[in-house]
Write a structure and sequence with these properties.
The protein is α/β, with parallel strands linked by helices. It has two domains: about 15-50 and about 85-240, TIM Barrel (Alpha-Beta Barrel); about 50-85, no CATH class. About 30% of the residues lie in helices and about 15% in strands. The strands form two sheets. A five-stranded parallel sheet has the order 1-4-5-6-7, with helices on one face. Helix 2 runs parallel beside helix 3. It starts with 20 loop residues before the first helix and ends in a 9-residue tail after the last strand. Bound molecules: flavin mononucleotide.
Length: about 250
């Protein structure tokens, strides 16, 4: 399913500064965003352990660090960051309530002369079965809110001990896409063919060609008749990629 236009073409990525309703409302109201993303949530929330989950900012030129775990928004010198943060402590259901609250705060026409309501990208993670449930919850919320919703599956978090990012594993990726196709089919059937939301996958940095080829291979496969139900194309409408800055020593 195609994504609605993102105007202006700027949106935040999933991160700790889009955790609360207040932060999401501020991002939604900003004239500079054309869409917003929530921090990654799980069906049941994620236990935040302040002794493990920490962050600091640093100045990339001097390597001077800021006070750990203190937001330094507005300080242009500390543009680097180090973190061991996990997912949001709030469950997906809480984010869907935030989305409803933001929706209820708007009138029957998009605010500020906009042509359409801004897209909300709901970032989620979990097992393939849990992601299928996340899809169903988000799709069920869609008819009750004004803005279009999309689901972004975070397959790339490096900070969860014992959980290799599934985006580095072709077999795991295949499992997610297969579960998603079934979830999309179930929601389409239940809604009489009306409700389908766009789904994206967030991938980690890939550094060699086999990683790209593995991803493309599974995406192509997910649109072919080996993955049921065969009437549906690939469940993936968009890919969120993060950049890798490489300095050439020569
Ligand atoms: C402190 C911190 C927390 C993050 N948390 C999440 C998260 O919950 N979900 C997610 O998909 N990405 C998360 N990310 C990754 C960012 O969304 C983004 O993809 C990454 O930082 C690369 O973008 P950048 O080069 O602009 O920093 C996090 C990044 C940072 C620095």
């Amino acid at each position: 399913m195609p994504l609605p236009p993102i105007t202006p073409p700027l949106l935040n990525s999933a991160n700790p500064w889009c955790t609360t309703l207040e932060q999401l409302q501020e991002l939604y109201d900003s004239p500079h965003t054309g869409a917003i993303t929530t921090r990654t949530s799980l069906l049941g929330g994620f236990a935040h352990d302040p002794s493990h989950h920490q962050f600091t900012f640093f100045n990339p030129s001097t390597h001077a660090t800021s006070t750990p775990n203190k937001d330094v928004g507005g300080d242009a010198s500390t543009t680097g960051s180090l973190n061991t943060l996990g997912y949001s402590p709030f469950p997906l259901s809480e984010y869907l309530e935030y989305v409803k609250t933001i929706s209820e705060g708007m009138g029957d026409v998009p605010p500020n002369g906009r042509e359409s309501y801004k897209l909300v990208v709901v970032s989620v993670t979990g097992s393939a079965e849990e992601i299928a449930q996340c899809y169903s919850l988000i799709a069920t919320t869609q008819p009750n809110v004004k803005m279009p919703l999309a689901m972004e599956i975070n397959l790339s978090c490096p900070n969860i001990p014992g959980k290799t990012p599934p985006a580095y594993n072709t077999a795991a990726l295949r499992e997610y896409l297969a579960a998603l196709k079934v979830a999309i089919d179930v929601c389409l059937t239940k809604s009489g063919g009306v409700t389908q939301i766009s789904v994206g996958i967030k991938i980690p940095p890939y550094t060699y060609s086999e990683q790209f080829e593995g991803l493309v291979g599974v995406l192509v496969e997910s649109g072919q008749n080996v993955m049921k139900p065969v009437y549906l194309p690939t469940p993936v409408s968009f890919i969120t990629a993060m950049g890798k800055v490489q300095q050439n020593p020569l």
